[in-house]
Amino acid sequence: MINRLVEKIKKMNAPIVVGLDPMLSYVPEQIQKKAFTEFGETLEGAAEAIWQFNKAIVDAIYDLIPAVKPQIAMYEQFGVPGMTAYEKIVTYCQEKGLIVIGDIKRGDIASTSEAYAVGHLGRVRVGSRNYAGFHEDFVTINPYLGSDGVNPFLKVCREEKKGIFILVKTSNPSSGEFQDCLVNRRPLYELVGEKVARWSEEMMGDNYSYVGAVVGATYPQISMMLRKIMPKSYILVPGYGAQGGKGKDLVNFFNKDGLGAIVNSSRGILTAYRQEQYGAFGPEHFAQASRQAILDMVSDIRGVLEVTK
Amino acid sequence: MINRLVEKIKKMNAPIVVGLDPMLSYVPEQIQKKAFTEFGETLEGAAEAIWQFNKAIVDAIYDLIPAVKPQIAMYEQFGVPGMTAYEKIVTYCQEKGLIVIGDIKRGDIASTSEAYAVGHLGRVRVGSRNYAGFHEDFVTINPYLGSDGVNPFLKVCREEKKGIFILVKTSNPSSGEFQDCLVNRRPLYELVGEKVARWSEEMMGDNYSYVGAVVGATYPQISMMLRKIMPKSYILVPGYGAQGGKGKDLVNFFNKDGLGAIVNSSRGILTAYRQEQYGAFGPEHFAQASRQAILDMVSDIRGVLEVTK
Hints:
Two copies of one chain form a homodimer.
Chain A: H1 2-12, E1 16-20, H2 29-39, H3 43-61, E2 67-70, H4 72-76, H5 79-95, E3 99-106, H6 110-120, E4 124-126, E5 129-131, E6 138-141, H7 147-160, E7 163-169, H8 176-179, E8 182-183, E9 186-187, H9 188-201, E10 211-215, H10 220-229, E11 235-237, E12 261-265, H11 267-270, H12 286-308
Parallel strand pairs in A: 1-2, 1-12, 2-3, 3-6, 6-7, 7-10, 10-11, 11-12
Antiparallel strand pairs in A: 4-5, 8-9
Helix pairs in contact in A: 2-3, 3-5, 3-12, 6-7
């Protein structure tokens, strides 16, 4: 799957992933209204609204980008109907040829991590049959419990040729509270990065590893060091756009081959129709506003890649 | 909710929580067979089997214990039908008067953590109405992203009078890889414990805080220090029984009032019927074997509490 991701990024010349993290408040009124008319103001109605919203955006952008990253929390907040919508959007995106990175940030002790790995990337045994519950192509995972929380994911990735992105340095303001703690004069995120590098060597695709990392766009100084520590890991970079990261901050995330990073934007794309810049599209044409926002993002990031050449 | 938990623990004289973490392989054959006959060897069939297994055990033990801790990963591995079974078991246990600690170990950046908090402990807004998706009473959370990942949970706990247990030092063998890293000569888990203590002071019930901690039973030396650092936090102690923790290791987790800790056992209770000690019950009477295993655990833990007096 990492080979397929790299290939798609190269072909489209767009190291970009769109975060499908819809708040109900992002969804234009006409879609909410239609869903509530059909299903009432219920969890099912909310799930229908975010599904229709996502579907329209995916239909408008799938030819421009290699991958999407649905944030499972935004679906999970609507209970079981939300989880149903999550699985539906994973399936739909895969049918459209998109690679799906499930932003699930799971992490637990061994047998429990195994259940998460099996449920999201692998197949669970039921009697004589196997089933893939949520069947994402990649997922994000939390490393706080150490390698026996990560190993079950590695095992499933090996069997299924799928991949993971391990949280190393997150994009939020308080990420430093624990991640920046100095351990022998070096921040914890560097130690986590070194572990990721070791795991990634065990799990190589053609040029990059099935084991990637998450490093926030909001820390451009840190990115250079982490890029060096984890040369074979793809870096998933959240925080572009709404969280304050800009194109020029991204240059250090890429290797000299112009590869090695994939930049995520969520709110900036999903709510483009509300931004002054794309206001002319209006709420009826929200999906076209998202398309234009991606075209602009692609051009911004291509500018960065020119610099690395 | 923390007041209710403390009250129930006192009344039952049993600081015990049973982990409802069913692997399909734990479920006796007659229950699997029945579920597969009705629903086929499908995810729905698997979900039905673990639901019936859980229900029978809950029916046999609910009068002995204050709380249960379903591990969401064990349900999530069966996709949407598994999540449906999870919600069903949460509801059922609450109807039986049990307090439900959802072992979800979620943690993300601010707006995303808010979605998790709302989905598991709070209520999500849909049009003019509010819905509680998974409605646990407590959940476990992962602190790696720092306080802006924790704050949304605190906010919801304040509104709903619910609680959280924050991972401080987990029971698995590799928990030391990052949690034990020395930061200014002190292990990271102590710094996390200090943060938990600060959060817990902001969120007090009568004698204990709505903010608790998870500290594994497998580290009795560490427990004394963490008990001191977080005097107002209930400590959820996994690792008793199958993971190697024993009753006598637990004494340091309790305060002088005989309170302050709740000990979890999962596999040891759920699969009691397969253990030599309870073999006489046989697979048909698996729930009665679980009941006997709890009676023995209660007596073991009461012995520990005698020592603290």
